[in-house]
Amino acid sequence: MSGFIDKTSNIDAAEIAAEYRTPDQGVSAKSNSNVTWNEYRKMTPRANQAVNAITTAGSQTLQARDFGGTAGMISHNQAVTTGTSKGASTVTYTGVSSPTGSGAAFLNANSGGGFGNFGLGSSGGTSGISLTGVASFPSGSTLHALYMAASGFGGTSYIEVSASNSNSGWTTMYLRSLYPGGSTTSGSSTFYNFTFTYPRSDFTYTYTSGKRQWSVYTGIGGNMTLTGFSILLNRPFTVEFV
Amino acid sequence: MEFEDKILTTDDITELYITGVIEDLYLNSVGFFNKGTYNYPGADFTKEEVQAADPNLHAMYWTNLCMYYASGQNGGVVFSMHVNGYLVNITLGYIQDGAYHLCNTLIRPDKDGTRGFMRNPEYHNNRATNEKSLGATIAYSYCDVGSPMNDTFMAYKNHFGPIEECNIRNWDTLKHLGQVTQNYSTSGQDWDGVKSEYNVVFEKYSMEYY
Asked: Which of the residues A123, A136, A240, B70 could staple to A70 if both were Cys, CB 3.0 to 4.6 A apart?
């Protein structure tokens, strides 16, 4: 089972390879021996411990600890609607949810009842991912959902963790969407992997039946500065909690 | 002028969103929306709030809609027309019981900054060929009440009807069928920003193929 890279232990190439083995190919795992440092560079939100500073592979210093507290995942993106003709409304679910995550109630894309993968390559699972040793989450915490339900002119993004009731465990989350090769082009423009920052203070916290949930509505009438998780689309991405 | 009409997948829609094409299509179409009574059905906001929304929110709205049609649920299909390799149009619709139902269109100028391609018979022949290839034997379209598109439809009928090269769609059969009211609900689900129950009135048209 995949997991977050433990920030408190020594991080070596083998550990990074175990979690980040397939930078660009989603669930079709690349052989670990074929993954170079320049490919890993595209994936971490940090370069030399500075967040969101990565624009081109090979131009910046990379440290093993830049990967601490991160994990790779694969987002699923699927729309549902109320009707079949003009005038219908659509809700698009984007991200990952285990069968016990709330997203599974709306969208049973996989036979297991959840959607997306908690991990990259063949190590990615669908039952959630341990947060033990990540940021200040209590030991035994499991991330069960990180997704957005987008409809109309906005949507609600959710983070769900199983643990006892406490609005703590992290202060900032970074999401980094991964394009094949680290960038994508359109016409004369090049778009590089970009890191999105989410302060916990922007989220509303609730606790129900062993599930801690943070949510934020982005769009008209809501938070206009944060980018909803829909930016993850159906691509691999990395998560970092601090 | 070379035309190619493609059927888009959800991965294609993702790419068009990332690279800003959907936002560009919206920005080049919104002026036409605002000339008519175009609205965003089901959106639980005022027209002023919708119009003031950041273009990226509009791009997200259209991306969500495109994703649904591209997923193929309930016969949904997304066509994209390319002029000399440049995407100029996305059209959302669905195939049901041998009929193609045109629901929404986003359009932008070609590489040269013109929309002259709209009056080229090959533009419409390419699209209509794709519609027929999916099993359509008749086409329906739904237009906002009061939209200038209602006049455009009749102008197109007069323009393309006599042109011999327009031999896939039979423009002479274009008919206004009157107004139809479509009712919707979220089936009891509470969706942020979406009305639970709503209805919309459209002008409905039909056209036959050769």
From this structure: A240
CA nearest to A90 within chain B: B65
Chain B residues in contact with A150 by the CB 8 A cut-off are 60, 64
User: Residue A33 falls within a domain, yes or no?
Assistant: yes
Inter-axis angle of helices B55-70 and B10-18, nearest 10: 170
Give chain B's domain count. Answer: 1
Percentage of residues in chain A having pLDDT higher than 90 = 28
CA angle A219, B63, A82 (to 5 degrees): 85
Q: What is the pLDDT of residue B128?
A: 97
Of all helices (H) and strands (E), which one includes residue B49? helix B47-52
Q: Could you tell me the two tokens for B184? A: 């919707």
Q: A4 in a domain, yes or no?
A: no
Rounded to two decimals, the ipTM of the complex is 0.82
Chain-chain contact of A152 with B43 (C-beta, under 8 angstroms): yes
| Mean pLDDT calculated for residue range B165-181 | 95
Q: Which residues of A touch B186 (CB under 8 A)?
A: 82, 89
Q: What does the pLDDT average to over B75-86?
A: 96
Give the model's pLDDT for residue A29.
47
How much is the pLDDT for A27? Answer: 44
Residue B17 structural domain: 3-209
Residue of A150, A157, A131 lying closest to A142 (CA atoms): A131
CATH no. for residue B182? Answer: 3.40.630.30
The per-residue pLDDT for range B64-75, each reduced to its tens digit, is 889 889 988 889
From CA B134, how far away is CA A206, in angstroms rounded? 48
> How many domains, in total, are found in chain A?
1
Closest residue by Cα to residue B78 from B70, B88, B89, B87 = B70
Q: Which residues form the domain of A170?
A: 13-241
Q: Do the chains contact at B184 and A153, CB–CB below 8 Å?
A: no
Mean pLDDT within A210-236:
91
What are the pLDDT digits (tens) for A1-27? Answer: 457 887 766 787 777 777 776 555 444
A189 has a chain B CB within 8 A of its CB: yes
Note whether A86 contacts B103, CB cutoff 8 Å.
yes
For the CA atoms of B96, B98, B99, B101, what is the dihedral angle to 10 degrees? 30
pLDDT score recorded for residue A127: 87
B68 close to A (CB below 8 A): yes
Asked if B99 is an interface residue toward chain A (Cβ–Cβ < 8 A), one would say no
